[in-house]
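Sequence, structure tokens reproduced for absentees:
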Amino acid sequence: MTNRTIVVGLAGTFVGMTALLVIGGIVLHPIALALAVPFGAVSYFLWYHASGRLHDQARRSAAQAGPTERERARQRARAEANRERAYRAAGTTDGGRGASGRRRGARGPGGAGGRDPRDRAPAADAMTEREAYETLGLDRTADSETVRRRYRERAKRIHPDGEDGDEEGFKRLNEAYEVLTD
């Protein structure tokens, strides 16, 4: 039985209870009418959910609201990881900064001295998204949960400490996972 079937069944049950309470309120006692109101509201929201309209409304609201704080944090983390990758490709390990904390070659606030490694193109040997999906054996429509699941399956199988260990394959698998999670 699917989730939608269960919600439709619950909505039907609440509609029936609402009808009984309305009839009971008219025939027996008005307090039953007061009880019918919350049952009616619950019936409406269950129907709204079962019809898929609640999900659509939530997605529209989220799209209008823009990125959440969690998404902004992910974007900042991706940008930082990309900067670090660019620094490594440029051959620097300290982010282009010397012991003083300022960028090497920077003259004043404009930094007109040296070139920032972030301005360079990514390394030619960097894995592309297409190669990452091929490494994991997935198609481009795979969601993040599928990517994570496939990564874990393959990582268990080819981890260097395992019996079928393949160090180079494991490094390539990790690189593919990083590309797809960034």
Observations:
- The CA atoms of residues 62 and 68 lie 9 Å apart.
